[in-house]
Amino acid sequence: MKQFLLVFILISSVLAAKAQQKTKVDVTYWGGRALMIVKDYWEPVKDQLKGQLSDSLFQDIKLHCQERGWPAFFGYEGDEEKSKQQELVFNKLIKYKIASFDNIRNGQNFGRDAVICIPWKENSSIIDIDAWNYDIYFIIPDKDVVELK
User: Fold this and answer.
1) Beta-bridge partner residues of 118
2) Which of 77, 81, 93, 82 is nearest to 35 (CA)?
3) In angstroms, rounded to a whole number, what is the distance separating the alpha carbons of residues 130 and 42?
């Protein structure tokens, strides 16, 4: 029984560590980021994310992974020139890929997506934005995400 308990604890700690893994990345195309997540978006993909994210992180992502959960600066800029300037700043920020999943809707796979975290603590010295005191998340097509070495 003690051996089983030790193995269970070891496996649990490995899974917890894996759930918190993050990889520093760059994003090659910001225009594909999800701006609005529909109510049922997470249901078909939550099982894919279980081994990658803790429950509390998953809840935080659901709150801060779309335009209405971001500080205004991160929202969509309708003007092409403003969008280019915004993306230049986005490219300077520290970003992490914290999960990836197949975007499956109604039995159709729309490709692989990545959850990108922009942590405010690590980026507050790069840009100072009012009302930004929490990590924000983007859903980006995985093909537009490049891991840094």
Assistant:
1) 136
2) 77
3) 29
Q: What is the pLDDT of residue 125?
A: 85
CA 92 to chain centre: 17
Q: What is the pLDDT of residues 113-149, one digit of tens each?
A: 999 999 999 998 888 777 788 999 999 999 999 999 7
CA dist., res. 110 & res. 125, Å (int): 36
Q: Note the pLDDT tens digit of each residue in 45-65.
A: 889 998 899 999 999 998 899
The C-alpha atoms of residue 61 and residue 136 are separated, in whole angstroms, by 7
Which residue carries 């520290």 as its tokens? 94
CA distances (Å), origin 140, targets 9, 100, 125: 34, 9, 24
